[in-house]
Design goal:
By secondary structure, the chain is of the alpha/beta class. It is built from 26 helices and 22 strands.
């Protein structure tokens, strides 16, 4: 049996088309294992003699169970000692294809490309690891080896060329063409990984300038990988004094054999040449006319490569994250240990080096701290939920939110990779509640399964968003911060209740040099708007409490006329509608929303009067529903006045303030009725604060409704509206 042990199920499906249906087709011969738990439970059958293990080298590294990891490594070693068993180690970080008896090493993309052919041969009773490494034509390696050796026999008698100290000659081992230039620099390459190429380039090409660099087309353990093309691409995409030097790639095959190669297009760029595998061709190459190569030409020339996302990345989502972190960190000068990890990846990974060359970071405008200051009246608590936070996003956002703006900032620090979706959601919601978050910055996809789901509502970020709005507090501001750029996602997210949407910068966005600065500016505006709207959380809490009180409150009615009962029910329904309307109007960008909310709050006071107080026909007195007579009170100058008291009032005839008995009209006002309700129907000790806020609300409403150009109104703000919402809640609580 063949066991494919790889935890990157998404990559299997999306990048290599190894879906569940395809695995099912070969179920009799090939079994996938995606989790450590599965490997543990099937350990005895997996490690049986005669099996073939295709093992992703970083599989065990994804677990925190160190003892288990060491044990499994030991089991692999023991398994490989049996000559009747086969072990194939594959990785996305290397480019080596190697076969040593029953043990093979292969790049991940090569393994999946040749896997079906290998399984078919296995089903016919043939185990051919060469087929897994080299596909349907493994004899290509042998042909290349014979051809190179044949050419070398002819080359041995060729004389050396003249001294050329400004040439760097690279060969792959002792049997390759020896350096034809007397006294010039030479380098022998054994390791062909991206990391090793970067090390050689940084050590050899940073100090001495070379006019010409000579590279073998076939280098490394697999001749048909044509790693010379990749090395040439590395040189062009690595910032050194030799970045634009002429490159000559010498090989035994022509262009027709390289057309399908990933890095073939490097031969279409300026000053990169493919030459024959001979000393004469190498010596003659330096006589070629040098047209020169300005550094400014690099972005355009390298854009001809059209490189695809490398197979060792799970998806474009990961690329966009790391690329955005790198660009944002540069723009705001946020460098520390966390960002350093990204810089290492960007500076060593060939795809990122290519992106840097095509979209040079030097063109990004640096953003000073003043532009990153939010200038907030209130200080919200900001929670960040993102499975990519540990890659460097936390450090970038921490500088903006905590270091510069001094806001309370926290990040959900859990093991996203090894948790089920429901566990992630539970941890996220618990953290929102325990941290008492006002603003949540939320990633769209937080679990591996999110990349293969076709149902929007099943995406982890969507489920968290909906639960925050539904079960915690609708007023919590949620900013979606994601690499997803699909329009349908955005439309559905808006419908689901997202408050802001910020798109992480993808490589394609970087075509515009201003993209990074504009993205950060959009982020700052989104944060500022969200922080300015944090009052909605308090409004929603008050609204929820009010509706709960209304639903529980029982009003005793002892009146024969049933129309009052109907009126009570009608006003209760109206009360709930007004409460909901207040939140809805405040949850808009209407410039006059605070005044609209104030009118609604006053309307609620009127509705409360309609529920509790009724004027009997033919009677000047006011009554509560239980027939108790309403005593009249009027709250002025921090004092509560009764029916026969006199207070200072404005006399229109005398044009001055005089002491007068309180007019009966005052006792019929909405404000006075609320004052009466508070005094007669509650037993709270301190009623003064409630009376005072009722006065402020009613006076503001009257001045707003009866506008007077000589009396300028101070504009309302969220704090005043929140206070008056608390007033409504307090009044209903004590009635």
């Amino acid at each position: 049996m063949i066991y494919l042990i790889d935890d990157k199920k998404i990559r299997q499906e999306k990048d290599y088309n190894w879906t569940n249906d395809r695995f099912e087709k070969y179920r009799e011969y090939l079994q996938p294992i995606h989790t450590l738990e599965d490997l543990q439970s099937r350990s005895d059958q997996v490690f049986q003699e005669g099996n073939i293990l295709l093992y992703h080298e970083s599989f065990i590294d994804k677990t925190d169970i160190r003892n288990e990891a060491l044990y499994r490594r030991k089991r692999l070693g023991e398994f490989s000692q049996n000559k009747n068993s086969y072990l194939v180690l594959f990785t996305g970080s290397g480019n080596i294809r190697r076969l040593n008896e029953n043990i093979a090493n292969v790049p991940v993309s090569v393994l999946y490309r040749n896997l079906e052919l290998f399984v078919k041969k296995y089903s016919d009773g043939e185990v051919d690891l060469k087929c897994l490494l080299f596909g349907s034509n493994p004899e290509v390696e042998e042909k290349l080896s014979i051809k190179i050796n044949s050419e070398l026999i002819e080359i041995d008698n060729t004389t050396f060329g003249k001294k050329g100290s400004n040439n760097l000659y690279i060969r792959t081992d002792e049997k390759y063409i020896h350096n034809p230039f007397e006294g010039s620099e030479q380098e022998i390459i054994f390791d062909v990984t991206d990391l090793e190429f970067t090390k050689i380039i940084n050590s050899k090409l940073n100090n001495v300038h070379y006019d010409n660099i000579f590279i073998p087309l076939c280098c490394g353990p697999t001749l048909s990988d044509y790693n010379g093309l990749r090395l040439a691409t590395h040189i062009r995409c690595t910032k050194t004094i030799n970045q634009t030097s002429r490159i000559f790639i010498y090989g035994v095959v022509g262009l027709e054999s390289l057309l399908e190669h990933e890095y073939f297009n490097i031969l279409r760029t300026k000053n990169v040449f493919l030459i024959p595998f001979s000393k004469r061709a190498i010596v003659d190459a330096i006589s070629k006319e040098n047209s020169g190569y300005a550094e400014e030409e690099l972005p355009v020339e390298m854009s001809k490569l059209n490189l695809l996302v490398p197979s060792n990345y799970e998806d474009n989502h990961s690329i966009a994250n790391e690329w955005s972190i790198y660009r944002w960190a540069y723009a705001i000068n946020a460098y520390d240990e966390g960002i350093g990890r990204i810089n290492t990846s960007v500076n060593n990974n060939l795809y990122f080096k290519y992106l840097q060359t095509v979209y040079p970071v030097s063109k990004i405008n640096r953003i000073n701290e003043e532009k990153l200051r939010l200038q907030l009246v209130q200080k919200p608590k900001v929670l960040y939920i993102d499975d990519e936070a540990g890659k460097g996003w936390y450090e970038v956002l921490c500088k903006i939110i905590f270091d510069i703006n001094k806001l309370d900032f926290s990040c959900l620090d859990i093991d996203f990779k090894n948790m089920a979706q429901d566990e992630i959601i539970a941890h996220a919601l618990e953290r929102v509640k325990s941290f008492d978050a006002d603003v949540v910055i939320l990633d769209f996809r937080l679990h591996n399964s999110d990349f293969t789901k076709n149902v929007f509502d099943e995406i982890t970020g969507v489920r968290i968003l909906k639960e925050i709005k539904r079960s915690i507090n609708r007023g919590i501001q949620v900013i979606l911060f994601s690499a997803t750029s699909k329009l349908w996602n955005l439309q559905q997210l808006q419908h689901a209740g997202i408050d802001e949407f910020i798109l992480k910068e993808s490589p394609n966005d970087s075509k515009d040099p201003q993209c990074t600065e504009e993205a950060i500016d959009r982020f700052m505006k989104a944060i500022r708007r969200s922080c300015d709207r944090m009052y909605l959380k308090a409004i929603y809490t008050s609204n929820k409490n009010i509706k709960e009180k209304i639903s529980k409150k029982q009003i005793d009615i002892d009146i024969d006329n049933t129309k009052y009962s109907d009126l009570q029910v009608e006003n209760h329904a109206l009360l709930v509608a007004e409460i909901d309307s207040i939140y809805e109007i405040l949850n808009t960008y209407n410039l006059n929303k605070f005044n609209h909310a104030m009118i609604m709050q006053f309307k609620i006071m009127e509705i409360l009067n309609n529920i509790y107080i009724v004027k009997k026909e033919g009677d000047e007195k006011m009554y509560f529903y239980d027939n108790e007579i309403v005593k009249y009170y009027n709250y002025e100058d921090n004092k509560l006045y009764e029916w026969n008291d006199q207070i200072l009032s404005w006399d229109n005839k005398l044009k001055k303030m005089v002491k007068k008995k309180i007019s009966s009209e005052s006792y019929n006002s909405t404000r006075n009725k609320i004052d009466c309700l508070i005094e007669q129907r509650t037993n709270i000790e301190s009623k003064k604060a409630i009376h005072l806020e009722v006065k402020k609300l009613t006076e503001y409403r009257n001045r707003y409704i009866h506008a007077n150009k000589n009396r300028k109104l101070e504009p309302l703000n969220s704090s005043i509206i929140v206070n008056w919402m608390s007033l409504v809640e307090n009044v209903i609580n004590v009635l």
